[in-house]
Amino acid sequence: MKIVIATDSFKGCLTSEEVESTLAQALSGEDTEVLTLPMSDGGEGMLEAFVSALHGSIVETEVHNPLMQRISAPYGIAPDGTAVIESARACGLTLMKEDERNPLVATTYGVGELIADALCRGCRTFIIGLGGSGTSDAGKGMLQALADRFTGSKSIDELPSSRMPACRFLLASDVRNPLYGENGAAFVFGPQKGATPQMVEQLDRQARLFARHSAAQLGRDASQVAGAGAAGGLGYAFIQYFRAEVKSGADLLLRLVRFDETISNADLIITGEGRADRQTLMGKLPERILRSAQKQHIPVWLVAGQTSDTESLLKAGFARADGITPAYMPIEEAMRPETARKNLQAWVSRIKHRLPALCRKPYQG
């Protein structure tokens, strides 16, 4: 039988490739062909997944992190010159210690530096992953870095008419929030980035003022476009200043790897993520994989570090929805990579005897 493994990362624990490699080794057998497809919806692990899909390579350059400290950050370049940038590699929450997190200070400047480096290498099409940011500056830092590089006045107002080459930007993101307001970047995402209630109010005011200024300068207002609030408003800056297109990160990657064609003769698909619950069904990667598989009547198993709302997941069409973490295990222990690998291997041992009965079993959903 043929099994396709296409999982997201187990956030903060194992990358997509590590999850899939562990499952593939445990599932391999004389009568079993296992195909792994590293996945991402635009968040953690996006860079490696998209570069693999595009058969590109990864390069590194020096940029500034959210606290304006110099770091080395990677991005990808495909053979056709498309650049793949995972914003979190330059402005990610994990680049700061917990007591350093302050979205009033954290900047997206390093993202602009990544783009500038790619432009100098001839890239004109960009796929930007917006997940995992530790910033809420509405993308002003990113714009400032480009202004510093490409405008004589160093003003972001000059960017649309600057020497910066014309580019196409695709934003890989499943966030649909606007820039500001009660559903905007500051109110929804600010607290998890270290913002106090007072900071949230200030960040929202700053976003409103920036949007008002930008609309006056450019003659259009993208602040309420779905996805403008992604990555603390970084999505807004791309949409407003560069007319970027917002795409479902999961759908974009599935198209790049020709997922529908790849699974056409599969007997089973295994997908997963760190935590699966009813939010999984709101356009996240496992749900998009499920919908593709349903068209070809291929059963899909969902495996996660933890699961809840299992009844909803099964009702949606997953043939199985399993959590690998024992109920007695502390979350700190479960999050250790080696422990997670052992839990994945134990899960395969429990379900492996079910595989022969699945050979092209018709999907009943």
Portion of residues in beta strands equals: 15-25%
Distance between the termini: 22 Å
Mean pLDDT comes to 93
Query: What proportion of the residues is helical, as a percent range?
Result: 25-40%
Characterize the main sheet.
6 strands, mixed
Secondary structure tally, helices: 14
Structural class: alpha/beta
User: Secondary-structure element order, as H and E?
Assistant: EHEHEEEHHEHEHHHEHHEHEHEHH
Q: Determine Rg (CA atoms, Å).
A: 21 Å
Low-confidence stretches: none
Find the count of extended strands (DSSP E, 2+ residues).
11
Shape: globular
Widest β-sheet, arrangement of strands? 3-4-5-6-7-8
Describe the structure.
By secondary structure, this protein is an alpha/beta fold. Helix content is 36%, strand content 17%. The protein has 14 helices and eleven strands. It has helices at residues 16-27, 46-54, 88-91, 109-120, 140-150, 185-189, 197-218, 234-242, 249-256, 259-262, 285-295, 310-316, 331-334, 337-351; strands at residues 2-5, 33-36, 57-64, 70-77, 83-86, 125-129, 168-172, 245-247, 268-276, 300-307, 320-323. The strands form two sheets. A six-stranded mixed β-sheet has the order 3-4-5-6-7-8, sandwiched between helices. The mean pLDDT is 93.
